[in-house]
Amino acid sequence: MINVTKTFLPPFEQYTETLKRAWDKSWITNNGELVLELEQKLKDYLDARNFILCVNGTVVLQMAIKALNLTGEIITTPFSYVATTTTILWANCTPVFVDIDPGTFCIDATKIEAAITPRTQAIMATHVYGYPCDVEAIEALASKYGLKVIYDAAHAFGTKINGTSLLNYGDVSTCSFHATKVFHMGEGGCIVSNDDKLSRQMYLYRQFGHIGEEYFTIGINGKASELHAAMGLCNLEYVGEILAKRKEKWLFYYEMLKGSDVQLLTISSHVDYNYAYFPVVFKTEAALLKVIAALKDQEIFPRRYFYPSLNLLDYVEYQSCPVAESIARNVLCLPLYFDLLETEQLQITGILLHELKEPALCN
């Protein structure tokens, strides 16, 4: 069986040896030694001014909205994981959907200005599949209209623009360290900001708003555990190798499928990509469904990621986003992970190309 992803795991003995440091102290949560060590190492790795390690990649979005005092409209993308939209709704804010760029799948920065109203307070954009939004254009619009910018960088660990980590853009950037991500700690996430005061506020939010017996503000429990930090410390040692392997497998797919009847992601020269996902966009949903069926017959399980377009959710007001709706119907992420074999990639691409040859799929 080949799944769309497979969790990278360090040697079990390495994990247990690292965890034993916390185990011996009977200190497994509340900012223990391993959490503090991982937080500092990730801060250094990402060259981040302020870095806060948290329990997952959703609570950090909630913390960002709260810390920025957002109460009105937030311009966002319909092509993202559902948490991007639901955190806006959770905060009783209003998502305003802007369609996406058909080449990068990120929010189309040229369409944002038309969506700005007197109630607009922020832009929440997703670096889709770990590929950068047009951060310069978004920052220019934010400056012009006095808007805050939150980047959902859940997929973007390891991606850089002109040598700078993508997590260092915007008022706030968040990342997920879920088990399916390029770097993971089982469950985890982080929040990054260049604003010291804002970062201090989010740090307090993470731990119920207090430090010891001093209470400063409201808060929630966003703390990571030592069990998760131990996994992160181990996996951080392999990040370079993980990124290199993913790039190798991503480029193999690209060579096999370029020139075929599917759209592929093109990487710009100024982007150091993390090769988090390998999306292919079919011309029709019928073609996509036929390929999925053929792959599943061989116990190969890709993922329709992201589907559906979030502006189509029953619990949001519909706003037309034809590009996102089309791509969401027709996009498929192929299996991609550290130890995926070349023979497995050949099998996957062989099935896909074979199904594309059928004339009925090209109508």
UniProtKB/TrEMBL annotation:
CDD domains from the UniProt entry: AHBA_syn
Family matches, as Pfam families: DegT_DnrJ_EryC1 (PF01041)
Residues recorded with modification N6-(pyridoxal phosphate)lysine: K181
GO biological process, alphabetically ordered: polysaccharide biosynthetic process
Superkingdom of the source species: Bacteria
Family: Belongs to the DegT/DnrJ/EryC1 family.
Active-site residues (renumbered): K181
InterPro entries tied to this protein: DegT/StrS_aminotransferase, PyrdxlP-dep_Trfase, PyrdxlP-dep_Trfase_major
Full protein name: DegT/DnrJ/EryC1/StrS family aminotransferase
Keywords: Aminotransferase, Pyridoxal phosphate, Transferase
Claim: Translocase is one of the keywords in the record: no
MF terms (GO), sorted A to Z: pyridoxal phosphate binding; transaminase activity
